[in-house]
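Students often ask what a holo structure prediction actually looks like on paper. The answer is less mysterious than it sounds. You provide the chain, you provide the ligand, and the output is a string of discrete structure tokens encoding the 3D arrangement of the protein together with flavin-adenine dinucleotide.
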Amino acid sequence: MPAGGGAGAGAGGGDAGRKALVVGGSLAGLSAANWLTAAGWRVEILERSRQPLEDRGAGIVLHPSTSRFLTEQQGLALDDFSLGVDHLRYVGPSGDVVAESASRLRFGAYGALYRSLRRSLEERGGAYVHGAHVTGAGADAGGAVVELADGSRRTADLVVGADGVRSTVRRAVLPAIEPVVAGYVAWRGVFPEDELPPGVREPLARAITYTILDHGHILTYPIRTATGEVQRNWVWYRNLPSPDDLDELLRDRDGERHDLSVPAGAVRQEHLDELQAAAAATLPPPVAKLVRATAEPFVQVMVDVDPPKVAFGRICLVGDAGFVARPHAAAGTAKGAEEAWLLAQTVADPAIDVPAALATWELAVLPIGSALVARSRRAGERAQYEGTWEVGEPLPFGLRAAGDSEYGPEGAAAGHTRPGSG
Ligand SMILES: Cc1cc2nc3c(=O)[nH]c(=O)nc-3n(C[C@H](O)[C@H](O)[C@H](O)COP(=O)(O)OP(=O)(O)OC[C@H]3O[C@@H](n4cnc5c(N)ncnc54)[C@H](O)[C@@H]3O)c2cc1C
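The corresponding structure tokens follow.
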């Protein structure tokens, strides 16, 4: 199926309004669907998973772009789905605080963001279809087209690929682009804040806490889950001795080889044992206790994806389907939300030519994505290989620039930007 323009006149089967198909119903897909719905589009999400995606157990450093839809369009308060801290703290090998500065970062949980964005879409009449496995994307005379695993085809005025790192839509339009493995992984876990072992809660309280290790680093911060519970989230970046270790690590308890992550509950016991031993041997005591108390950590492989284009006629790529930055700038979700917001503004005018609008949108988002990938890669190389991430230095968190993830004094979004402003 050729990618590209197509007339688009028949999209939507004669229904009123323009129709968008969003492939992938995670945070980027939900952001795109919500913003497009708010801009007057009829939207349908095609999600491969047969169940809601609520149980991923991961913390997300928020950015004003990530929270914008929920605060501006849904009228939610930031405290409804996130919490803030007062300090950035660095903890040394013995567990002592070795540097501390003020921080106005805010943190959310994947499940809380997913649930809020999904509820909003459903309230606005957007459709969310589970079990819809897209196998291809392109264009014909009727508009943009997606093919599904059941053999059916759907046509729309716009197709938004929001199907993650291994995007099928990206493969259809950019077959040569593959994720580039960085050589290290992120181990992640959460633990209920009010069950933290003695000696752990106080050193970490009201803070995002970093420990710089020999060829690695670990951070931890509190999150508010979808049910309102406060949990302690941690992320430990660990280098792989060799590519063979990756193959081993990605093989789960049933022997199945996963692609770029092994979910909680599936990591083989020998790897969990090794993690526990390494925590005891190398982490400061409070952080080691947190990691060792976590029942089912999970692991994700760090990759870069740096595509030359993200708009192809009536097809575009958002979130991890487009650029994938290593998480050191903590802005992957923010990038997807920003791309979605800019997209909806660019195609809001019902009379606009969609391929021309996507070309304009691409000019705005390409520099954000490629700069984020480069800045995040640099931060990762410094921390994991060069040993030049200094104790006490400001974090590289930010979407357009380091520092723009911080919120204002009352939790207001300090880093809000308008299209074309950056
Ligand atoms: C360790 C780590 C820490 C991070 N921390 C932060 C942070 O603090 N702040 C931040 O902003 N970002 C962070 N990120 C990045 C963030 O998690 C991702 O950028 C973001 O979740 C990507 O969302 P997405 O919707 O683009 O992709 P995904 O969440 O991967 O969703 C893709 C969806 O598409 C569906 N799908 C896939 N293929 C198909 C198909 N063929 N047909 C139909 N559906 C399909 C999948 O089932 C899935 O639901 C972090 C990432 C990692 C790894």
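Residues 23-29, 46-49, 53, 60-61, 63, 66, 132-134, 162-164, 168, 186, 188, 235, 300, 319-321, 327, 330-334, 336 surround flavin-adenine dinucleotide (CB under 6 Å).
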